[in-house]
Automatic annotation (TrEMBL):
Molecular function, one GO term: zinc ion binding
A cellular component annotation (GO) from this entry: extracellular space
Name under which the protein is recorded: Peptidase M36
Signal peptide: 1-26
GO BP annotation list: proteolysis
Keyword terms, alphabetized: Hydrolase, Metal-binding, Metalloprotease, Protease, Signal, Zinc
Source species of the chain: Tumebacillus flagellatus
Amino acid sequence: MKRKSFLTAAIATAVMMTTLVPAAFAETGTPSVAPAAQKSVDAQTAASNALQAQAAKYGFKSDLSDLQYVSTVNTLGGTVVRYQQTVNGAELFTHQVTVTLDNAGQALLIASDYVPNLTAQPVSKKIGENAAEQKALAALNATDAPSAMNSRVFGYIFENGQAVPAYKVVTHSGESEVESFVHAENGKVLKKRDLHQHVNGTGKVFNPNPVRTQGNATGLTDNNNKDSTALTNQLKSVTLQGLDGSGYLKGQYVNITSKVNTYSSTNTFNYTRSSGSFEDVMAYYHIDTVQRYIQSLGFLNINNRAISVKPNGTTQDNSWYSPSTKDLTFGTGGVDDAEDAGIIAHEYGHSIQDNQVPGFGATEEGGAMGEGFGDFMGATYEDALVPNTAFKALIGEWDATSYSSSTPPTLRRLDTSKKYPTNMDGEVHDDGEIWSHGEYDMAQAFGRDVATKIILQSHFSLTPNSGFKDGVAAIKAADQALYGGSHLSQITSIWAARGL
């Protein structure tokens, strides 16, 4: 979210916030040197051994009998093994545990949403799956018949200190896809959320924005989307990769769904900013470019999908990512947000985190981490395109011309003096400046590519409830996994300067 957060938590806050403690870390949070595990030990066995060793600390059962293995994901820095907490053999929805292992099988980190000593609410008589589906549809006021695509799964949700028996029902009605949790005995809908992925073309865009490419904001004004010689001079010709050949801006990683429904039979999209199609091209090009950059770092499983984007989807001077619909919306208040690549990359950052950790940002600190990471993505993307020191640690200079009095104008800075916890004020964008500063300092110290790899790797180890200290621990573990801890001393100093 550019300003006031519309990034509402998709999952209710869990009962407890578990601090991430690396299994092989000393009390200071610094990775300790441990003997390399035998490569003959498989990842699931190594993870299980780590969980049993830490059972007392996290409240796990000694035999791990209520932790069900879910998946093993191979990453650049090793392996992440994921488990699902169960109650009476059924899933406790959204409560998971991850174990991060390095390439030698050494446990680096345990992240846990596990609820210990959990009591299950008794149920005398369950309603059936079909009845649960009908209750979910009724709560949505859906008039169509149940779809063959609908699904129903029995499990538990954590409510008021208990495991409450419920069906998770995913319904498809018209163009909507909704996840509902229906009480398994009385049929009450406890909660619900909306869930709604080649050829090359050419186009013209601001790359990243006209203030950066001109070198200043002189003569650059929005003027209600009118063209001007100064702004037209800043247009750059680019290749639009991965289009599906339909003539619309639909491709491997982006699906533009705009009111103007931009179309070209030759896949040529050259517009000036007075056209509503200009923002369509901007959004397609810059999101596609950021996704390809992530893949160039070696990550092929981070938001690797065609994300739906509404470039002029609201008249507000704001933009947002929706964790329920999984799409992006950009506003037209002031300078159209989708005319500034830094703003586009920021919002895409929210989608990245939600893809790596579904439901991320369930706490205020998590929300601040999301805003800070978005600013990091936007600022480093702009820096890579126009490495002008006059714009160091700034984001959204063109967008900010409609509200900023600074020179150059900026949405936010990534080099404030804020520290944790002294300068926390409970507003995610304000507090996010603490997080973005630390991440941006990493990019200055190690270069954009190394810093981004460490940060993206660290996200895999987080949970929906993670906060600042959890994030720093995960960053340290990621550096250990990717680079053998070679940046650990600098990472420690960078985050200590931010009070973490």
